[in-house]
Amino acid sequence: MIPETFRSAKVLIVDDEPAMVRLLEQLLEREGYTNLKATVDPREVLACYAAFQPDLILLDLRMPHVSGLQVLARLKQQTAAEPYLPVLILTADAAAETKRRALAAGASDFVTKPFDPTELLLRVRNLLEMRFLHQELRRQNEGLEAQVHERTHQLLQTEKLATMGNLLAGVAHELNSPLSVILGRVALFEAAAPDERARECAQGIGEAAERCVRIVRSFLTMARRHPPERGHVALSQVLQDAVELLAYELRVADVEVRFDLAADLPPVWADGHQLQQAAVNLIANAHQAMREAPPPRRLHLAARWDAGSRRVHIEIADTGPGIAPEIQARIFEPFFTTKRDGEGTGLGLALTRGIVEGHGGVIRLESRPGAGARFLIELPMGVAPATRDDPGALDAALPVPGKSILVVDDEQAVASMLAEALTRDGYTVDTAANGAAALRRLEVQRYDLIISDSGMPVLNGPELYREVERREPRLARRFVFLTGDILNPRIQEFLEGIDAPRLDKPFTLDSVKRVVRRVLLAQ
User: Fold this and answer.
1) Going from the N-terminus, what domains does the chain have, and what CATH number goes with each?
2) Does the CA dihedral 386-392-394-397 come out positive or negative?
3) For position 331, what pLDDT does the model report?
4) Cα–Cα distance measured from residue 61 to residue 95, given in angstroms and rounded to the nearest whole number
5) Sign of the C-alpha dihedral computed for residues 279, 281, 287 and 289 taken in this order
6) What pLDDT shows up at residue 318?
7) Which of 71, 73, 60, 69 minimizes the C-alpha distance to 16?
C-alpha cells in the first residue's frame, strides 16, 4: 500500500478503451489511490486538466480524433507554469522512434501494453514522488524569494533610515551653533532688560529658540544621534498640551476632541518634549485626514495604565477616511507620504516611531477604509536612575572669583557671546579662533580653565587637549568641551574616552555657568 501522503494524489486516466480505463482504476484504487478521474475522449483532456488539476496523467498514444502526441503538445502549452507535471505513456508501440517523439513532446515515462501491474504501480509511485518533490522545492524557492524580498525591503529601509539620519544630523549640526548664540544672547538681554515688556519679549524669543532646540533633538533622537532627556512626565498633560497647540486648526475644521484619560496614570520616565512632539504629529495627521471627511469629525485621545505589564497604553483615533490596507505597512517609512506635493515630507510618522521606540515603546496602526484610523502606543513606565547629590547645585550659577578662562571656538559669534557672559560674571576671558591660536596664548598667559569647541580648522579640540595634556597636565584637568560635531565618529570616541565634561550644542548659559563652577572648584 502507498504512504498516506500519496492517497490524495490526483490521477487523470486518458484512454479510448473503456475496459482499459476500468482496469487502471481498479489497480490504482486497490493500491490506495482515492482521487481518480478518467475520460475516453482525448478531446476532453484540456478541460479535464483545467477542472481537475491532476498530479499525474496516464495517457494512451493511439486514440481516435486526437493522438497522444497531439494531447502532449496541447498540454505543454497549458501547463507551462507547472513546476513538473508527469505524464506516463501507455502504448502497445514499443518502437524507439515512438518513444523519442513522445519524450520530445513532454512524456515522462513509458509502460508497454500489455503491462505488468507491479511495474505500472511502481512507475506511478515514482512519478508522483518526483511531482511532490518538485512542488516542495517550488514552495521552498517561493519562501526563499519572499525572505529575500523581505530582507531587501529591510535593507532598503535601513539605508533610507541611514540617509535620513545623516540628513537630519547634518541639518542639526548646522543649526547647533546659531541656536547656542540665540539662546545665549537672549539670556544676556533678559538679564539686562530695561523694563518688564522687554523682558517678556526676550522670554518669548527664548521659548521659541528652545522649541527649535527640542525639534532638533527630536530629529537627532530619531536618527539615533541624541538620547532622550528624561524626567518624570505626566502623560495626561502631554496629550492635553498637544491638543492645545493645534486647538485653532481643530476648531476651524470643526473637529470635536474627546479625552478619556484614566485618573490613576502614573508619571513615566521619559522626554516630555519628545512625547509631545509625537502626539502633535499624530493629531496633525488626524486633523489633515478629517478635513476631507464629512461631519461629524471627532478626535479621541485615551490613556490607561496596565499595572501588570507596567506600561501605559495611549490611543489617538480619528473619524477620517482611514488608511488603505495596501499602504499601512509603509506609513512609518521615512519620506513615504500620500499627501499632495508641498503638504508633507513623509517624516512625521517616522519621527513619531523613532521617539516611541527610543523610549522602549511600540506603536501600531489599526484602520479600515471608511472607518478612521487608530494609533496605539505602549510605553514602559521607566525608572529614574539613582542620582548623587551635587553640593554645588544650589549655588551653581555663582561665579568663582578671580579666575581666568580661555574660550576656543572658530564660530566668532559663539566665542564672543560666551566671553561677554563670563565677563559679566567677573571672570577674565580671552578668545581664540582655533587650537593653534590657543597654544600661542597659552605661551604668554596662564589660565585656570579652557572652554573649547571640538571641531575646528588648523588644530581641533582633541588635538589641543593632547598638546595641553603634554605641556601642562594640571590645565588638562580643567578642560570643558563644546561639541556640535555629531557627524564625526572619531571626535565622539575621543570625548567618551576622556575625563572632561562636555556640553552639546545648542547649550544654555546656565549650563555653561554650572559646569564652569564645578570644574573650577574640583581639586
Assistant:
1) 4-115 (3.40.50.2300), 152-222 (1.10.287), 231-380 (3.30.565.10), 404-521 (3.40.50.2300)
2) negative
3) 79
4) 12
5) negative
6) 92
7) 60
